[in-house]
Design a protein that fits this description.
With 201 residues, the protein is α/β, with parallel strands linked by helices. It has one domain: Ribonuclease Z/Hydroxyacylglutathione hydrolase-like (Metallo-beta-lactamase, Chain A), CATH 3.60.15.10. Helix content is 29%, strand content 27%. The strands form two sheets. It has a six-stranded mixed beta sheet with strand order 1-2-3-4-5-6. A four-stranded antiparallel beta sheet has the order 7-8-9-10, with no helix packed on it. Strand 1 and strand 2 form a beta hairpin.
Length: 201
């Protein structure tokens, strides 16, 4: 029987992260950072409550950092599977994750200068620029209307969520024990009265 675990964005807005387990397949839906406070504290305190190396694949609803920001840390901790997202989301990720890395690295250097003044050990980075590049290399691009066979048991179909460029509603069809179930992962929906974005499908 499919099992869904909420690891983020439950009773809160940021840190979107959900784990679907079915027929021996482990699918992470989004891997976002919590927002508020310094990048150094936030990224250091965001702990995975699962082993990243056991995740088979990731679905990314869109590029905003509260949905994508911990992907480099996920890779650093051992994830090496495909990351399924729209082509536009993959393009945005290159800008957003590189920018986020630059801000994080700058803040970490500043924090370590402060710690050195007080005789405290420096903090090690939670991930590095090579991890960002690995994330980008793992992206499997899909267009709206595409359906991707992710495993023998799981198919994912992508639809326009109308939130930002590339944002997707992902419709999962799950086959297990001779039964079919459908799970819709909406991510974030819509963008009120935007002349540039279509309404959600």
């Amino acid at each position: 029987m499919p099992q869904l675990t909420f690891y983020g964005a439950a009773r809160e807005v940021t840190g979107s992260c959900y784990l679907l387990e079915t027929a021996g397949f482990r699918l992470l839906m989004d891997c976002g950072m919590h927002q508020g406070g310094s990048d150094v504290d936030r990224i250091r305190k965001d702990k995975f409550r699962f082993r990243p190396s056991t995740i088979d694949a990731v679905i990314l609803s869109h590029g905003h950092l509260d949905h994508s920001g911990l992907l480099p840390k996920l890779v650093n901790r051992g994830f090496s599977g495909p990351i399924y997202c729209s082509a536009a989301t993959a393009d945005l990720l290159e800008i957003l994750l590189r920018d986020s890395w630059g801000l994080y690295n700058r803040d970490l250097e500043r924090e370590n200068v402060r710690r050195a003044r007080h005789g405290r050990k420096p903090l090690e980075p939670e991930y590095d620029e090579a991890d960002v590049q690995t994330v980008l290399s793992l992206c499997e691009r899909a267009e709206y209307g595409d359906c991707v066979q992710m495993s023998d048991a799981v198919t994912a179909c992508f639809h326009d969520a109308g939130h930002i460029l590339g944002s997707s509603i992902v419709e999962l069809t799950i086959q297990e024990s001779g039964k079919q179930k459908r799970l819709v992962f909406s991510g974030d929906l819509g963008n009120s009265d935007s002349p540039l974005m279509k309404d959600p499908e």
